[in-house]
Automatic annotation (TrEMBL), chain A:
Cellular localisation: Cell membrane; Membrane
Gene that this polypeptide is encoded by: nuoH
Source organism of this protein record: Lacipirellula parvula
Record's keyword terms, sorted: Cell membrane, Membrane, NAD, Oxidoreductase, Quinone, Translocase, Transmembrane, Transmembrane helix, Ubiquinone
Broad EC category: translocase
Membrane-crossing segments per the record: 7-25, 31-58, 109-129, 141-165, 275-295, 315-339, 351-373
Superkingdom of origin: Bacteria
UniProt catalytic activity: a quinone + NADH + 5 H(+)(in) = a quinol + NAD(+) + 4 H(+)(out)
EC number annotated for this UniProt entry: 7.1.1.-
Protein name, UniProt field: NADH-quinone oxidoreductase subunit H
Topology of this chain in the membrane: Multi-pass membrane protein
Assembly and oligomerization: NDH-1 is composed of 14 different subunits. Subunits NuoA, H, J, K, L, M, N constitute the membrane sector of the complex.
From TrEMBL, chain B:
UniProt EC number: 7.1.1.-
Membrane topology type: Multi-pass membrane protein
General function of this protein: NDH-1 shuttles electrons from NADH, via FMN and iron-sulfur (Fe-S) centers, to quinones in the respiratory chain. Couples the redox reaction to proton translocation (for every two electrons transferred, four hydrogen ions are translocated across the cytoplasmic membrane), and thus conserves the redox energy in a proton gradient.
GO MF, any single term: oxidoreductase activity
Homology family: Belongs to the complex I subunit 6 family.
Name of the protein this chain belongs to: NADH-quinone oxidoreductase subunit J
Organism for this UniProt entry: Lacipirellula parvula
Membrane-spanning residues: 6-27, 34-53, 59-80, 92-114, 164-186
């Protein structure tokens, strides 16, 4: 028994904690596998649960300030910080009600479906980058996975509305489903723009490419991405069903929408799912546009907290990255709360018009704009085009150098696209020279180095190019 | 514990879940529950894709089937279902017919699964050497007409050229036609003789 526990601790340390330090994982160890998975689950669950705890309190405080009220003050002394705990206790002790005509099984399982979908998005979200990212499951198509999973939450909502045997629930669920499904279109189109610039759907790669000063963030990459970010945030607010797009729970007409008939803990599961989704879309926004785990000033690399200077310093640098990601996520949630208590609710036709008449065309045009920018000014950012002093500030070598060295992508498949637009495909992909014919030469000219006038970046990519060829041969 | 090959275990779990929920789709009589079980079966299939290292296809499965088609399906049920369609009872004759058709298909597929040599399960040592490769790029290249997995083909016609550009274009044009047709059918009809106003 004792040796079993000993082994377990051994695997625990070796399989997860130490892999954060960059040490190797014994990959075929059964216990380590399970324990690592459990630790990831516990961390993510707690992120969502504790996040909801804080956000509910925050929402009440912010709304109190905005509407010139105090918000919670009675419970927990200063700032009423125990308010959510008291709320939680109250919700747990409430009776678990179910309408007579409800479909019992679906009614009971619907909150969990919503909550599971909300949590599943966090599987692929990175919390720190660099060569050893902190991420539960490093997916090659992370952005796509997160966008796909975020769309699943609506399923629980539909089930809840349908199985409640209540017309308010049904109408609320149908409104919300229509809204979420339509807003997925512009949301996906906005998420494509950073993917296009980064040349990868891997969120770790996308984040690593934004290292350095805040001028390297994709929101400042070009005017198109700047507009795309605001469209993305609008669509994200709508797709997590927050005001001003929360018509599905309009209390004057629908009482509370799809969760009219829910009470107690099941009701609170819906709200945990909502706050979890708010956090995940905010973190996704920060990864795609706002530099992910890179602060406005690269403190970690200035202080030398990278993996080149040892594993412990790299670990500390990742901690700073984690702080950055969570801060940006919380700021995004705060902005959503602020919007909710500031703007009036839209009518359903206005909600749909915002999506179909404004967000979708703008996102499409911005996609085109980003493509044109990448084609005409390969590897140049907006700040990189500014006149001399500002441009020097933007691509300062002292801050650029550690980036180039330390931020080797975790998988060798994708080369930093912004330095010369070289999208080296994957290891076994055809190097253009191996295929005869004029088309492939054009492909090389299109994807490849392009012009030699960019002396620094061109030589860089040439080296990469030959290196990859050497690997193949 | 060292002898357990965990991918096999997870394959069995996800495969079993997919089979069980498919059976549940068959056996339940409530049409909304059927849709719910279908979602779970399709999600378990997505799990199989993730297990095989094909994350793009798995996410596609989640986005299209679970998030798109099924939501649409339930929407249709909610909008159209009348009392007698919500609970469906299958007559005994239909059961027999379905058993015959399904059994025939199952026997055929089982025979096919065991007769194709490439589908036999390889040795564990060979499997453990395999490394899942980044997989969205070859799919995209294939849709643009370049098969990156066929570079070593003998002739340059076959080398990387036998992609799926043509079917991809046909499908996309077809979908566009369907979309325009749907918009045409669903447009607000103008009255032939507008009522005089004022």
């Amino acid at each position: 028994m004792a040796s079993g526990i000993n082994n377990l601790l051994d695997w625990l340390l070796s399989s997860w904690l130490l892999s954060g330090l960059g040490w190797s994982i014994p990959s075929d160890s059964a216990v380590g596998y399970v324990v690592a998975a459990l630790i990831h689950i516990v961390l993510i669950l707690n992120l969502v649960a504790v996040g909801a705890l804080v956000f509910i309190w925050l929402e009440r405080k912010i709304s109190g300030r905005i509407q010139d009220r105090l918000g919670p003050t009675r419970v927990g002394g200063k700032f009423g910080w125990l308010q959510t705990l008291a709320d939680g206790l109250k919700l747990i002790t409430k009776e678990d009600l179910m309408p007579d005509g409800a479909d019992g099984f679906l009614f009971k399982i619907a909150p969990y479906v919503s909550f599971a979908a909300s949590i599943a998005a966090f599987i692929a979200i990175p919390f720190a980058g660099g060569p050893y990212p902190w991420i539960a499951q490093h997916l090659n198509t992370g952005v796509f996975f997160v966008v796909a999973v975020l769309g699943l939450e609506v399923f629980g909502v539909i089930l809840a509305g349908y199985s409640s045997a209540s017309k308010w629930s049904l109408f609320g669920a149908m409104r919300e489903a229509a809204q979420v499904v339509s807003y997925e279109v512009p949301l996906g189109m906005c998420a494509v723009v950073p993917v296009l610039i980064a040349g990868s759907m891997d969120m770790v790669v996308i984040g690593n490419q934004q290292a350095g000063l805040f001028t390297n963030w994709f929101i400042f990459h070009d005017p198109a991405t700047f507009i795309t970010f605001w469209v993305y945030f609008t669509c994200a607010t709508a797709s997590v069903n927050r005001a001003p797009f929360d018509l599905a729970e309009a209390e004057s007409e629908l009482v509370a929408g799809f969760h009219t008939e829910y009470s107690g803990l099941r009701w609170s599961f819906f709200f945990m799912a909502e706050y979890g989704s708010m956090l995940s879309v905010s973190i996704l926004a920060s990864v795609l546009f706002l530099g992910a785990w890179n602060g406005p000033i690269p403190i970690a690399s200035i202080l030398g907290l990278t993996y080149e200077n040892g594993e412990l310093t790299g670990y500390l640098g990742n901690l700073i990255g984690l702080t950055n990601v969570l801060l940006k996520g919380v700021v995004g949630v705060c902005v959503m709360i602020w919007i909710r208590w500031t703007l009036p609710r839209l009518r359903i036709d206005q909600v749909m018009a915002t999506c179909l008449k404004y967000c979708t065309p703008i996102a499409a045009v911005m996609f085109l704009g980003a493509v044109l920018w990448q084609y005409n000014l390969p590897g140049r950012t907006f700040f990189g085009l500014l006149p001399a002093p500002a441009a020097m500030f933007a691509v300062d070598e002292g801050w650029d150098a550690p980036r180039a060295a330390s931020v080797e992508p975790a998988r060798p498949a994708v080369v930093d696209v912004r330095e010369g637009r070289e999208a080296e495909l994957w290891e076994a992909s055809p190097t253009p020279k191996q295929l005869e014919g004029p088309n492939w030469l054009e492909v090389e000219r299109g994807i490849g180095v392009g012009d030699a006038s960019h002396s620094k970046s061109a030589s860089h990519t040439h080296n990469q190019h030959f290196a990859s060829q050497g690997r193949r041969d | 514990m060292e002898q357990i090959y965990w991918p096999s275990v997870f394959f069995l779990i996800f495969g079993g879940l997919a089979c069980a929920f498919s059976l549940a789709v068959l056996l339940s009589t409530n049409i909304v529950r059927m849709a719910f079980y279908l979602v779970l079966a399709l999600a378990a299939t997505a799990g199989l894709f993730f297990l095989a290292g094909q994350e793009f296809v798995g996410a596609m499965q989640l986005l299209i089937y679970v998030g798109g088609t099924l939501v649409l399906l339930i929407f249709g049920v909610m909008l159209t279902s009348q009392e007698r369609f919500v609970n469906m009872k299958t007559p005994a004759g239909d059961w027999v017919l379905g058993m015959i058709a399904g059994g025939a298909l199952l026997s055929l597929l089982t025979a096919a699964a065991f007769s194709v040599p490439e589908w036999r399960s390889p040795e564990r040592a060979a499997v453990e050497k395999l490394q899942a490769e980044p997989n969205a790029t070859p799919i995209g290249m294939g849709l643009l007409g370049a098969r990156v997995d066929k570079i070593d083909a003998p002739t340059s016609e076959q080398a990387g050229r036998s992609g799926y550009l043509f079917p991809f274009e046909i499908v996309s044009v077809h979908l566009l036609v369907v979309l325009i047709g749907a918009a045409y059918l669903a447009r607000a009809k103008r009255r032939a003789n507008p009522l005089p106003t004022g």
